[in-house]
Amino acid sequence: MATLVVLIVFILFLAAILTGGYNRRYLDLLQENWLWNWITTVDHKRIGILYLIAGGFFFLMGGLEALLIRIQLMFPNSKFIVGDVYNQLMTMHGTTMIFLVALPLLFGLMNFIVPLQIGARDVAFPFLNSLGFWLYFSGGLLLNLSWLFGGAPDSGWFNYPTLALNDFSPGPGVNYYVLGLQIAGIGTLISGINFLVTIINMRAPGMTYLRMPLFTWTTFVTSALILFAFPPLTAGLFMMMFDRLFETSFFVTAGGGNVVVWQHIFWIFGHPEVYILVLPAFGVFSDVISTFSRKRLFGYNSMVFAVVLIGFLGFMVWVHHMFTVGLGPIANSIFAVSTMAIAVPTGIKVFNWLFTMWGGRIRFTTAMLYAAGFIVNFVMGGVTGVMLAVVPADHQFHDTYFVVAHFHYVIIGGTIMGILAGVYYWWPKMFGIKLDERWGRWNFWLFYFGFHLTFFPQHFLGLWGMPRRVFTYEAGYNLELGNLLSSLGAILMTAGLLFLLYNVVQTFRHGEAAGPDPWDGRTLEWAISSPPPAYNFAQTPRVRGLDPWWLEKHEGDGKLKPAEPLGPIHMPSPSHLPFVMSLGFFISGFGFVFHSWQVGVLGLIVVVVTMYVRSFQEDPGYHIQPDELKGVEH
Amino acid sequence: MKRCLPASGAAMGILTAFSLLTGCGNHNMSALDPQGPVGKSELNLIYLSTGIMTFVVVVVTVIYIYVVWRYRERPGDEEKGIPEQVAGSKKLEVLWTVIPIMLLIVLAVPTIATTFSLKEKPDPADSLRINVTGYQYWWGFEYPEQKVTTANEVHIPTGKKVDLIMTAHDVIHAFWVPSLGGKQDLSPGKTDRLVLQADKPGIYEGKCAELCGASHSLMNFRVIAHEPKDFDQWISSQQNPKSRPTVGRAEEGRRWVEQNCIGCHAVRGAGYRVLGRTGPELTAFGERTRIAGVLDNNRDNLKAWLKNPQDIKPGNRMPAFDHLSEKDLDAIVNYLQELK
Ligand SMILES: [Cu+2]
Ligand SMILES: [Cu+2]
Predict the structure, then answer these.
(1) Which residues form the Cytochrome oxidase subunit I profile domain (chain A) (predicted)?
(2) Is B2 in CB contact (< 8 Å) with chain A?
């Protein structure tokens, strides 16, 4: 009860400040603060940077967890981290990396770049964009606070019942998982819808669908996947939440529930999720490869078709995660074939990348190194994927280190390297300065070598009898060397990433100005100054073909053609409501984790009140007048 | 055997990996060294898929190395102007769509055939049925026709199909014996079948492969395959276990076990009123090779287990018996080791 009173007072206090009802002076002070400006921003570029910062922070957490795991597994029978604590570590590592690192970092790039690539001034719903970020952040924070209050979830990132139910996971850990992911998931869904609408509605004149850069295309398809894949997760998490908090029996066998239902629901979300993660990386690599080969993308149309096809097929393969459940040979065969089918469009992409480079003039910048390295990883991760689709073979692979190797090859080798390539490639656009190429090469080679050293031996560990998610293995079964190499590799990867950190710090201290178009780019974002002004384009450009900026440089006069006369630009006004609403969700989530209905409901009240305020708020935005535009010829 | 990893780790190619696949790992625990027909047919598919995939990898690698080397930017390239902007090539694109489809068909046909054949129900007349139940963190085995139960070590005859009918008592587990064949999940509220067969006598290591709690990593078991006649002997010794000790001290242990353990454990033929079912069967425990799947079965280890099972298997459901005196513990250990 006492906590409740304190919370109410605190919230009233905040509300008083925020509405200016208490004393305008505080409000003014607050509004001039830089932190406040970031919290209330609705600028897609700033929100993109917020995603990168938050994702980077969780990356440190997840990376540290991975390192601890590899230290425990470095030698047989070691007792450093065992039992339940190990399960917490490995669960949080997976959950963090999938939900709080990979996708948000991609969202960071998408947010910053996609509106620029389609010649838009912002996303379709700037307010929702900010809300999506803050929901993600509060969900992620809630999940990670489990380390401090009550213990982290420990049932693996796919959280199978009955292990995840109260009987076998009695602490608050799994509640954190359910509620944290629910809140972060709403944010993801909102962002996905926002990107969809942005790409459908906000393209500059002449930017037809088949002129969109591949990164925009993959963002588009990924957003569609989010739209269809996240609702099943939401539903599943609700059922799990009800089983845990309100004693329902969706998954409790004694109460007539069924444990296999959760597996279906989870993987109907979970398989598309891996394409949600990897498609945007394909997009980054397509842009990077064509830019640094100085050639247009080979087979653009079939690349687009392949992305759409992969997205579509991605919904028809989820049972390949369940081949050992015992669903029968008919189901297993159908899903084996559909899984193999997905390899075809994926193969098309690989060859198209190779032939984009063919005949080009390849500059091996750090971004391009990541792209070139990715092709190798992805071919390896892809072929092991096809091998996993072979049902009888999968009976041996399933739930072993072979699978661990496979999905790290695609998620690190694909998604994370895509993000790193994107960071090196777009850093000058985002901050106006280039990351240092020399440190970049250190970063790449250490990370790359460490990556293979970590994960290549794991294929064998799996085949030699090492299940995944084990905290130890016995000596004398030939598992020692592989594990040792794998742990050494993890240390190398860490070292590689430290070079990236160092590079970032050094660049901010004395990086050289990059100019608007440091790489001889092809797409619209390179036509405007770095970093771009708040309104992006002083005049909305008219797009005349694929790779519009390259076109203007080589077949035009090197300037974008405007599609509208110079005029006042309408901008959305900043808002603190997304932050407050997310705070409400956070408080509510925290309350429910500990079965405190009062706090839970209180948080929801905050949410509803902010929704109410938002609904009746008039937000006319503001205008930037033509004479305020910098660097524009009048 | 030790050589295979660094070489392939450095070469980092599926090709080397493939050539090194055979002969690696421990032969009692490796999917690459199968000891029965199921494991062999699975390995054949692993080989087939690796072979086809190696072909793909080789093609890609050759093009890749050529492209990256031939078209890298060299000093002086600037003067040559920009490369030709090629839009694509219908012919090539059709080629690399059609060839993979054909390769996948080659892979899909045997995949489906084997998927169905492995799930065939064996003829009860020439197979042995065993019921398997997964518990946190141990395995119960029941031979319904022979009326024998045992735990953590399952004995089977060679050359005969074993029809394993599985379910779980609490959470999901997965039954995996890498050298005999792939795994099957054990789900609460559901029964499933896995058919395995061993060709040669031997001890094959088994693991739980589905995360099932704190001691998931330690939920091991063993499959012990005998020649058929040795197996029959084993069955009959299980049906008439020596559970009445001949030595005096052990008789004392029998009583201690009666007082402390039989609520959870069963010892058939010892004259106990109840046969506990919430812990592993202890009949003929002296014959087991291991304790709880993780320790070698000897007196010291057994005593350590009784004193503090949590230290050995965190989170397991056996209470500690550190309140018993050394003498009483010795008596229990004596008795358990006498069980044959
Ligand atoms: Cu999948
Ligand atoms: Cu288990």
Answers:
(1) 30-544
(2) yes
